[in-house]
Structure formats: structure tokens, C-alpha cells
Design goal:
CATH topology: Rossmann fold
Number of helices: 7
Largest sheet: 7 strands, mixed
Number of strands: 7
Order of helices and strands: EHHEHEHHEHHEEE
Structural class: alpha/beta
CATH class: Alpha Beta
Strand order of the largest sheet: 3-2-4-1-5-6-7
Radius of gyration: 16 Å
Strand content: 5-15%
Oligomer: single chain
CATH superfamily: Phosphoglycerate mutase-like
Length: 220
Amino acid sequence: MTGKLILVRHGETEGNVAKILDTRLPGLPLTERGAAQAKTFGANLVAPPQRLFSSEALRAKQTGGYIEAATGVPLEVLEDLQEVQLGDLEGLNTTDAHHAFQDIYHSWHFGDLSARVPGGETGFEVLDRYVPTLERLRAEYLTTPDVPDIILVSHGAAMRLVSRELTDVPRAFAANNHLDNTETIELLPTAGGGWECTRWGRYPAPFTSDIDPTGDDPMG
């Protein structure tokens, strides 16, 4: 069996605490708690990854830096893996702004990927920039049996959308179960170029729509 692609949501940020919709690069930094979460994640890895990557966002690079320090695996920063871009909602922390994004985001999970965040992205546009990088990482690092996992530090909303579209995770489960800071989605390459989701946050596979939903926190 080959290694997995482990997508890691970054540690807690100042934006998460203030409930700010923070998606534009470079974005807000980690809090002290977020740094501690990243250090703990790195220290708790059973084995170092084969390769370590992050998005260009400051919070992802900082999280990856702490994992690098814990494992000795150099961090590599990749383009096009930033969070879902929120356009006119950027920088807001109002209930109305969060509801506006969640309405569109949930519509993506239930099949309407053409819906657009005002001034921001459609679901199709998120997938078009994000998925090719995952496929390249798969082709370069995960085609040989018995290779170690690779880790990619990324962002909650983008991770959930992409992982749902690449696998058979139930739509209701993906829409209703967010990721806490430094929680993971683990994707296993399968024959024929597919992916199998083996873990989604606190839940190992299999995933069912009747699992109690977790409350959605500010994405980013």
C-alpha cells in the first residue's frame, strides 16, 4: 500500500478568534494557541512525512514551519492552495456575512458548484486551481508501494470541498462536519487514479450522513 496525502488545517489564527472571514493572501498569523497546536501536531506524528508542503498563506506557512522543526522535513510552499476566496465578504465578521458564505458553500456540497461568492470564487474555480496540484503530488510521490505519507498544510473550507469532490464521502456529512485547527483529512490513492478518504477530522471511515454535525466555525 502506498502512502497517503494528509491535508492538515492550519493552527488557530487571530482571524479565527475574532470570527473574521480571512482568505486573502498573506492573511493573519497564528495565535500562541495556534503555534502550540502546530508544535503538538508535529511532535505527535508517528513517523516523519516523505515531503511537507503548505499553501502560501502566512498561517499555513507558520504551521508548516513548526512541523518542519519537529520532523526535520523541509517545508515547501505551493501556489493555488489558498482558502476559498470570499471577495466582498473578506474581512467581515458579522453573522450576515457568515450566513451568506455558508449558504453558498453548502450549495457547492450539494452539487451547485456554479454558485459564486459575491466578488469571490465559484466552487468550480476552487477545484480548478486546487485539484491539479494534488494530482501532481500524487504522481510524483504516491505511486510507489510502501512510501511514507506526504503532508499538506491548507485550509478548512477548501479541504472539505476538494475532498468531497474527489471521494465518495456523503454530501451531507461533508457539508455538516467542519475541521478544527490542525485536524486532518486523509486521502489514500486508489487504483485507476481515484482517492479514498480514510479520515475526516475526528472521524475514521466509513462516513455516514447520520453522524451528528459539528458546529461550523469561521473558515480560513
